[in-house]
């Protein structure tokens, strides 16, 4: 069964990130990347990955948090933020916490509340996507993909590892722009170490380049 690739948190006109995502995804047989996910998108809006599962149990419905099965699950800040946001949203709807503080959070509701719950899930999905799909800082990318800073800068410069729009860091008067990278692209590359090795072999074949 094919899995939907994590969606991009940022879409910009002319960005090379979606092109690279498709290229990397082709190397992974169980990943299906497309520009449209979770139904039709409104023009100009970012796509939203679905990290929430609704299970219909007849007279009850269960809502569960399902984080991405990649490095984002291991990032403590993202997981804790997602858990807080999920629990807060579910408690506002007076859901019953059936996870008892163990494992991933899950809540149950009477089926009669389904309309109200589904309406709230629209906002919750966007909040969770903003947490899990937030761009990744350059240093984290090197650590996650086990590449050197030199490799990261080289591949960013030649377009193989394109950066997302830069983010401002520091105070306004002394701030500076920093390179960040698409979480979707980093997730796919983490699952495709062969792509990284192929890039390294490609580098060695270039004139004047040594290991």
Describe the structure.
This protein has two domains: 3-40 and 135-204, no CATH class; 52-132, no CATH class. Helix content is 41%, strand content 17%. The chain has eight helices and nine strands. The strands form three sheets. Strands 3-4-6-5 form a four-stranded antiparallel beta sheet. It has a three-stranded antiparallel beta sheet with strand order 7-9-8. The protein has a two-stranded parallel sheet with strand order 1-2. Helix 1 runs parallel beside helix 7 and helix 3 (76-92) packs antiparallel against helix 4. It is elongated. The model is unreliable at 1-14 and 31-46 (pLDDT under 50).
Structure in a nutshell:
With 211 residues, the chain is α+β, with helices and mostly antiparallel strands.
């Amino acid at each position: 069964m094919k899995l939907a690739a994590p969606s991009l948190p940022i879409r910009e006109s002319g960005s090379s990130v979606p092109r690279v995502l498709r290229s990397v995804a082709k190397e992974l047989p169980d990943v299906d990347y497309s520009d449209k996910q979770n139904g039709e998108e409104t023009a100009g809006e970012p796509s939203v990955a679905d990290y929430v599962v609704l299970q219909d149990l007849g007279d009850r419905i269960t809502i569960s948090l399902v984080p991405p099965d990649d490095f984002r699950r291991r990032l403590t800040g993202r997981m804790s933020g997602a858990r807080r946001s999920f629990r807060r949203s579910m408690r506002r709807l007076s859901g019953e916490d059936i996870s008892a503080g163990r494992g991933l959070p899950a809540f149950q509701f009477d089926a009669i509340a389904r309309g109200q719950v589904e309406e709230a899930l629209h906002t919750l999905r966007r909040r969770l996507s903003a947490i899990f799909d937030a761009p990744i800082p350059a240093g984290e990318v090197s650590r996650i993909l086990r590449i050197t800073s030199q490799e990261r800068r080289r591949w960013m410069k030649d377009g193989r590892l394109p950066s997302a729009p830069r983010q401002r860091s520091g105070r306004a008067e002394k701030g500076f722009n920093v390179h960040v990278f698409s979480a979707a692209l980093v997730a796919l590359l983490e699952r495709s170490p062969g792509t990284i090795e192929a890039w390294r072999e490609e580098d060695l074949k270039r004139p004047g380049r040594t290991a």
